[in-house]
Amino acid sequence: MGWVDTTNQVPTVQYGVHPTSLLNISVGKSTTFTDPGTAKRKVTMHLAVLSKLMPFTRYYYKIGTQGGGYSDTYSFMSPPVAGTPTTEPLSFIVFGDMGVDNPQSLPGIIADAQAGKHHYGVGVGDFAYDMQEENGKRADDYFNNNQPLHALTPFIVCPGNHENAYNFQQYTFRWNTNPVNTGLLPANAGSEVAGQPNNWWFSRDIGNVHFTAISTETWFYSQQKHVKDDMVKWLANDLKKANANRKQVPWIVVFGHRSMYCSCDGDCDGAATTVKKDIEKLFYDNGVDLFINGHEHNYERLYAVHDEKYVSGNGNLVKNPAAPVYIVTGDAGNREGHEKFSRAQPKWSAFRSNTFGYSRLTVHNDTHLYWEQIMTDNGQPKADYGKVIDTMWLIQQHHGPYAQKESQIYSGTVSHVTHLSKLTGLDGPGHKNVYAERV
Ligand SMILES: [Fe+2]
């Protein structure tokens, strides 16, 4: 559990399974991060480990300082034991590309958190726009704005291109709550971050899902290219081990920031191809079920696709596919506005929308996974805020390497939906062209 405050006292968490009886105490550690901007602004971060939690149990807690003040009482669900069935389907809120300015999805996301509509969260990069601005105060603004969500929802996240300033320092230090299993960032990641927990790529089993986070940014920034090969090597090993553990943890979901497949604009060509060249075969060989990313400020759900070709799926169902499904959810809202679809919809693209929104992933059991896209766009009719505009059942009864299985290829007409806003002014320029930053 991590937080930032302005005290220099001993950070402490009081917690327990009853909101009025927080008898357990965890004493944390504090570290100071100095933003490299002109003000050399210092931020004191606290990190406390809550150990020996009962699995998949709601815990209540307060954070604060011994002898000082404490926060309000919040709660969270502890992680389930990997491979052990849970008492209810696991649900995850998923979003990407949320800024301090114009976070149109945030009220809906917070309302979901407070209503208990998800257990955990997945953030697919680009936070705050940008965390280092105003000497790092922008990051404080982001976490203050999003506190009602994060105080209730344990998150795993990956870095995006908007985290690239000062060699990803704000991301590396601020998101030090990621449950890393990849040790410390090595010396060749850069002296600014070396020795910090490696939250650029890591994996974690949550119930019956193996989540793997990757940094797609390692392909695109000069200071990261030294570690890209290390990450890909680790990914190959991670997916191989996860695939060997299917009986315990059947689903494999990988997430990163940039697209491997999308159909909106030029990002879906060169950059996507660069990433695919190194890892698409790993996904295929190890039977990755789903890849989720952001970066495009829109929503696009793909069918099962491999090597640029449609494999299977129709409408809202993808059953026993012989390739991964890809989903772009980068439309939580930020100052860069919407990203239009300037290209025709390919056969492998099931549904796309250029409205703001976020997603929910519900893992019902070892074979059935449900996906929803929730529209939260202030430019749309008010009554539609929070409306589910797209759903998908992903059914996989034979998890594993795709080359070994026969695809249930649909031979009829395949549905393709483009859900474009009818209101003017929503087809904004999208994110700035970042090709110039690439190496
Ligand atoms: Fe991005």
Quick tags:
single chain; 439 residues; alpha/beta; Purple Acid Phosphatase, chain A, domain 2; 2 domains; 5 helices; globular; disordered C terminus; binds fe (ii) ion
Description of the structure:
The protein is α/β, with parallel strands linked by helices and 439 residues long. Helices cover 16% and strands 28% of the residues. It has five helices and 25 strands. Helix 4 packs parallel to helix 5. It starts with a strand and ends in a 20-residue tail after the last strand. Residues 422-439 have low confidence and may be disordered. The protein binds fe (ii) ion. Residues 126, 160-162, 257, 295, 431 line the site of fe (ii) ion.
Helix content: 10-25%
Our count of helices gives 5
Radius of gyration over all CA atoms, rounded: 21 Å
Task: Specify the structural class.
Answer: alpha/beta
How would you state the average pLDDT, rounded?
91
Kindly give the count of domains.
2
The appropriate CATH architecture of the largest domain is 4-Layer Sandwich
CATH topological fold name of the largest domain: Purple Acid Phosphatase, chain A, domain 2
Largest sheet: 9 strands, mixed
What is the CATH superfamily label of the largest domain?
Answer: Metallo-dependent phosphatases
Strand content: 25-35%
The tally of strands reads 25
Q: What is the global morphology?
A: globular
Bound molecules: fe (ii) ion
| H/E element sequence | EEEEEEEEEHEEHEHEEHEHEEEEEEEEEE
Low-confidence stretches: 422-439
Distance between the termini: 36 Å
* CATH classification, class level of the largest domain: Alpha Beta
